[in-house]
């Protein structure tokens, strides 16, 4: 990307300026304590494709999932966004994160617990299914209308390998009508590993990964979501200030139109 001072540093924007909050520090699972200082939730919401998030499935409830919700700022903004764009639906959202400290912070700032819920949960853990099934059952739906997985795929991929990333995507599709992804480019993998090294921690084991470039990563994720799960990619955003794109995938039964 042109104009970037150091392509391996996530805290530098496309125009070469240091982002708000500066260097995020080192993290093995992406659970940065100050994440929203350098990726403000309001800016993320402005990128959402409003015309593509309107549900085709009838019903009173609109139920969403935010995987890797951190301290909840973006989850709360997502609920506000969905509620404003779906005035005739009762919108509820479940935010999950594997860090108990971040979830505690999210719960403290949650002023609408009847509509926004936070759970400390590893999406790939064995107890996820029962918690998610109970949440959906309480809202009388079989699947989430929309699941957000924003800047999460790298952490699952780097820590659990190609099979872990495939498992994340297939499981996410199995419980969702639509999935909105914001995958990290390969430079972010290198940046995360380098920050761990600088902090005196073991680096991420990137050599074991088969899919190790932007093109390979996108082809792999498209293959899993489209070929295996039967979803259509119906929207890809322009690149944002931190060099990532939003990709919306919709279940075939809920989709009509042109495939990207």
How would you characterize this protein structure?
The chain has 260 residues and is of the alpha/beta class. The chain contains 8 helices and 7 strands, in the order ααβαβαβαβαβααββ. A 7-stranded mixed sheet has the order 3-2-1-4-5-7-6, with helices on both faces. β4, α6 and β5 form a beta-alpha-beta unit. α6 runs parallel beside α8.
Q: Characterize the main sheet.
A: 7 strands, mixed
Strand content: 15-25%
Determine the mean pLDDT: 86
Helicity level: 25-40%
Number of strands: 7
Determine the N-to-C terminus distance.
23 Å
- Estimated structural class: alpha/beta
* SSE string, helices as H and strands as E: HHEHEHEHEHEHHEE
What best-fitting shape do the alpha-carbon axes yield? globular
- Low-confidence segments: 1-21
> Radius of gyration over alpha carbons?
18 Å
Strand order of the largest sheet: 3-2-1-4-5-7-6
Number of helices: 8
Short description:
This protein is an alpha/beta fold and 260 residues long. It has eight helices and seven strands; from the N terminus they run ααβαβαβαβαβααββ. The protein is 36% helix and 16% strand.
